[in-house]
């Protein structure tokens, strides 16, 4: 594996991890907001329980 390919692979990994961290952070913020307004409702929402595995996650 060349150094250029390894750099590209590392850059792609970093981009994916940053996107996942963004989705997790957004889900956490929505969960906290929802818990203040309607406690327990977030546990019934799949997109908040599994933010990385729901339909439409990229």
Sum this structure up briefly:
This protein is mainly α and 58 residues long.
How would you portray this structure in words?
With 58 residues, this protein is mainly alpha-helical. The protein has one domain (3-49). Helix content is 67%, strand content 0%. The longest helix is centred in the middle third of the chain and has 35 residues, at 3-37. The two termini are 27 Å apart.
Which key terms come to mind for this protein?
58 residues
SSE layout:
Blueprint: H1 3-37, H2 46-49
For the record, the count of structural domains works out to 1
Distance between the termini: 27 Å
**Segments where pLDDT lies below 50 for 5+ residues?**
none
Main sheet properties:
none
Task: Determine Rg (CA atoms, Å).
Answer: 16 Å
The total beta strand count reads: 0
**Secondary-structure element string:** HH
Mean pLDDT: 84
What general outline do the C-alpha atoms trace?
elongated
* Relative strand content: under 5%
Number of helices: 2
- Helix proportion of residues, in percent? 55-70%
The chain-level structural class is: mainly alpha
């Amino acid at each position: 594996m060349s150094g250029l390919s390894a750099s590209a692979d590392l850059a792609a990994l970093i981009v994916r991890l940053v996107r996942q961290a963004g989705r997790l952070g957004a889900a956490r913020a929505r969960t906290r907001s929802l818990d203040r307004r309607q406690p327990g409702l977030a546990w019934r929402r799949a997109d908040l329980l599994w933010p990385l595995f729901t339909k439409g996650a990229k």
